[in-house]
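User: Okay, second chain of the day. Same drill as before: sequence in, structure tokens out.
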Amino acid sequence: MSEAAAPPLSVLEDRFRAMLGGRDLLALLAGAPAVGFATVSLRPSIYFEGRVALLEDLYVTPARRNEGIGAALIDRLLVIAQGEGWGQLEVQVDEPDVDAMRFYARHGFTMRDRTTGDRALLWWCEL
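Assistant: Same drill. Structure tokens below.
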């Protein structure tokens, strides 16, 4: 979701506060005061023993980009994922965002099924 299409900050804050108390959301902050953050939602899957994680947000303040902050957040998430036995970590990237695709590819993400080589596509139905 683009920043322009996101709900107002007050709505996001209320939702975030409610979700942080549960077991299905992980949030990481970078810096003090925070200059970046990552949020991950977790769900069970019949395909893996561990839960599957979706990287919902990876954000670094524009003035601090290209300093390795996003990479540090991803590296930390991968350590947590391995330590907790997650089955898979997924991320959604818009097709024109080639910089994000290169970033995630550098960190081991792929958009191809490892067994078939098929490209992964995400479709959704907004309700």
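The radius of gyration is 15 Å.

User: Thanks, on to the next one.
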